[in-house]
């Protein structure tokens, strides 16, 4: 308990105070950061309850294995790669040269065991693997966790990079469902670096009669609508925050339809 409470203190989740009485005792109380973290845990628990092999309880060995597989796949960029298209281990080894083949094989195997990826039909050598619906839905607690980090632990946690943005959008895009009256291409852009020459990352999604038909991380294509914002603004939207935090241009009906769907993603877990 001392180890846990010390770690939570360092994260700013708990606050420790000494009581001026004999014998001296320490009293712990939760901070605003801790209260916010409980909301992240709630979404994480809801995601775990939708696991393909049956509900998983937060804190169980199964939850630890699943979360470890998710984090390992994200940090190694395997999630980003397979979110774009199904890939074999050999293809992943070419796309992610900084990680050894045995390590990629182990991480991919762990993700398959956790039901985050599954075999897909393929004609080449090797078995291609693509994301399961459960992995796509993982973007919901992930967005909540990253928003918490940006607000309460920005100096001690990694910054959001281009591949993070692309992975999140590529996972979330197939979850988007619009009214049948929406058609066109919408560019979703995140300003990952500010200043006079900001670095942009994101995707262009193609919609036909309300259904997603394409999603590419190449931003230089034509688009009838666009939505631009900072990482924090996008995270707020994907966490169900109030509208109006993004700059929308072009076909406002299309862009607002896409954004409203992304804002409603947290409710997806609540209804499963």
Describe the structure.
It is a single chain. This protein has 12 helices and 9 strands. The two termini are 34 Å apart. The protein folds into 3 domains: 29 residues, no CATH class; 79 residues, Orthogonal Bundle (Arc Repressor Mutant, subunit A); 113 residues, SCP2 sterol-binding domain (Nonspecific Lipid-transfer Protein, Chain A). The model has no long low-confidence stretch (mean pLDDT 91). With 272 residues, the chain is α+β, with helices and mostly antiparallel strands. It is 46% helix and 19% strand. It is globular and about 70 Å long. The strands form 3 sheets. A 5-stranded mixed β-sheet has the order 7-6-5-8-9. A two-stranded antiparallel sheet has the order 1-2.
Show the helix and strand layout.
Layout: H1 2-10, E1 14-18, E2 26-30, H2 32-48, H3 61-75, H4 78-84, H5 89-95, H6 101-113, E3 117-119, E4 129-131, H7 133-137, H8 139-152, H9 162-172, E5 184-193, E6 199-208, E7 211-216, E8 225-229, H10 231-238, E9 247-250, H11 252-263, H12 265-270
Parallel strand pairs: 5-8
Antiparallel strand pairs: 1-2, 3-4, 5-6, 6-7, 8-9
Helix pairs in contact: 2-8, 3-6, 4-9, 5-6, 8-10
């Amino acid at each position: 308990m001392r180890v846990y409470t010390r770690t939570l203190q360092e994260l700013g989740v708990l606050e420790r105070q000494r009581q001026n009485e004999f014998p001296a005792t320490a009293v712990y109380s939760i901070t605003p950061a801790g209260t916010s973290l409980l909301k992240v845990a709630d979404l994480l628990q809801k995601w775990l309850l939708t696991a393909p092999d049956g509900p998983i309880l937060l804190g169980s060995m199964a939850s630890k294995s699943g979360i470890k597989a998710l984090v390992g796949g994200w940090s190694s960029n395997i999630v980003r790669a397979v979110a774009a298209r199904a890939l074999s281990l050999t293809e992943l080894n070419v796309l992610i040269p900084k990680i050894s083949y045995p390590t990629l094989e182990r991480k991919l195997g762990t993700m398959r065991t956790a039901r985050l990826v599954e075999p897909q039909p393929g004609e080449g050598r090797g078995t291609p693997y693509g994301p399961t619906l459960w992995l796509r839905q993982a973007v919901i607690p992930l967005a909540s966790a990253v928003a918490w980090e940006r607000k309460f632990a920005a100096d001690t946690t990694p910054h959001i990079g281009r591949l993070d943005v692309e992975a999140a959008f590529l996972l979330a895009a197939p979850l988007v469902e619009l009214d049948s009256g929406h058609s066109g291409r919408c560019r979703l852009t995140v300003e990952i670096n500010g200043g006079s020459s900001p670095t942009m990352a994101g995707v262009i999604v193609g919609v036909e009669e309300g259904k997603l038909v394409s999603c590419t991380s190449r931003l230089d294509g034509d688009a009838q609508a666009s939505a631009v914002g900072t990482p924090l603004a996008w995270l707020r939207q994907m966490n169900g925050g109030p509208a109006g935090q993004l700059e929308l241009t072009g076909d406002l009906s299309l862009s607002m339809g896409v954004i409203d769907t992304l804002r409603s993603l947290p409710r997806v877990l609540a209804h499963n």
